[in-house]
Design brief:
With 694 residues, the chain is of the alpha+beta class. β17 and β18 form a beta hairpin. It is globular, with a radius of gyration of 26 Å. The structure holds 1-deoxynojirimycin and calcium ion.
Length: 694
Amino acid sequence: MNPTRFIWAIFVGLGLLAGCQSAPQEMDLRAQSPSGNLKLEVFLTDAGQPAYTLAKGSEVILDTSTLGFEFLGAEPLGTDLVSTGSAKESVDETWDMPWGEQAKVRNHFEQLRVSFQEQKAPKRKFDVVFKVYDDGLGFRYEFPKQAGFETAEITEERTQFNLTGDHEVWWQPGDWDSYEHLYNRSKFSEVDAISKRDHPNIAATYVHTNAFNTPVTMKTEAGTYLSFHEANLTDYSGMTLVLDQNNFSMESGIVGGPNPYKVKRDLPFNTPWRMVQVADRAGDLIESRLVNNLNEPDKLGDVSWFTPMKYVGVWWEMHLGTKAWELASGKHGATTANAKRHIDFAAENNIGGILIEGWNTGWERWFGIPDREGVFDFITPYPDYDFDEVARYAKEKGVQIIMHHETSAAPRTYEQQLDTAYALMQKHGIHAVKTGYVGPLIPEGEYHHGQWMVNHYRKVILHAAEYEVAVNAHEPIKATGLRRTYPNIISREGLRGQEYNAWASDGGNMPDHLPTVAFTRMLAGPIDYTPGIFNLTMEPFKGDENNINTTLGQQLALYVVIYSPIQMVPDLPEHYAGHPALQFIRDVAVDWDATKVLNGEPGDFVTIARKQKGSDNWFIGSITGYDAKTLTFPLDFLDKGKAYEAIIYEDAKDAHWKENPTAYNIRKQEVDANTVMELNLAPGGGTAVSIMPK
Ligand code: NOJ
Ligand code: CA
């Protein structure tokens, strides 16, 4: 793509630069993806700064993008470098997902490792490892052990992503504390993240500068879809992307904290992978497993103690305000009787689990006060909640308890009790926990996405694994594909979930929210969104200002569109009563052999088909944003020659997210691999389809 640059790269390899002694005779600093669709070039700029470019055919995706670091008490590392060697390798392997969107994942890429060293003392050195896939690029810095450079106190990572135009962007602000922002859609040049500061409904939020949280998704003028994120975030700060709007460029903006550095690591160490997904079709972004492939293989072994499941909860009633977490409220939700009521509903409806929030003491002091250390103890139930009896009853009914550990953003208190808390779970055969980190962090000065908290979240995962516990974190660190290595990372929040519809002061999640989430947040990993609310107006508990801004058909479709191995069925049992649509929730699977994205555009609509794990059943979910949609697609993924019955749960003709959200029809259709299915989605609507062999 740039011949002069390539020839120059070879000359670097010939050791023509001063001080470069051990360079090989020929150095090919190019790599390409297995099909050749993506091409990478690595080189040094005139200033001796490492740089790379990425192209897709004739389209330059990333133009000269430089690499480097700044440190506390040491010179920046980035200029005056030479390249001392390179190595290339091709990998093509397949690994199994214990649970997931698909059973098998192909990991197929070309790797280029380039070694760099300073020309003058102290001659610090590092490698950059690039992996070029058909669906994108990942690269990371690797710092080997070296004399005179024992500890890196990183103040800034200067990794550039130099875009080539004023792309259309689906973004949320680069917040050091929260991912619970609405998504915005604008030209790159028009992004104003600062305007999203201090949202009144986000319990802890710090928008540092004009930056993105990742994943952030873009569309180029040529129609190529890009999404930027990071993989394997380990012992490092989370990365935002800081905008340089004059140059259509972005730079890694790592999260800070109370120290004068942002990341502190002893050498040797590797950074997380910086990654960009590249796709012709928006749906290919969702089908890509790049973020998982950039992580290490499974380290836990057999995790069959965790079963993907749907679950109910003593939960939505708190968000509606009819019940409360704290006993002192006089309307305590987590009573033995109420838990049993939900367990009965779960057992009757093929729902495998129950979450009971507010079961433990401390909720009187959990929110809005600075001193929250020691508030929760994770083992002491309120007096009206008989822990042993609820556990016994759940077991009798075949329903698994999902434990709840709200930490109120006091992670030190939680860390002190991990063993006692998980031992209690182990005693009762409880294998999943929902954790929570609501509020500004203590110690003050730390942020949810800084290195200190990244390490806390990891400590929880490793501890939980020892007790055969799977974790669903709320107010989490973002997903970076680590579920491949630690499959007890089952799901997380890390977005504006359904709960905002109950109490947000800004009108809640509007119809374009979930069609955007599917192409942004969902690229990172499973989401505990809590779909499936049937009482969409939330009357009589909520006024006109709070509604679920979708149709009921869309609530059903979300069980397929939004992937998670645990899916909540959150509404009150009485709100499902008399609704034939509940049958879809009973039937829908939570673990999959295959996933196909049939169509979609970020923010507008998306249709996803998934094949149930170990079965011939397929489920389809299709959702749209503000606009009504007629979508047609072939069912050519079905087994040839096999007859199936499709049950279609669709918006009624006059359904509308605002005017008439609960109007739906159910119809049946005989289908096979030759059928072309037509779905009609209302504004803010959706359709859910189950397809089972006859
Ligand atoms: C925030 C979580 O997102 C929500 O689901 C939970 O009910 C509250 N924290 C209390 O833990
Ligand atoms: Ca939350």
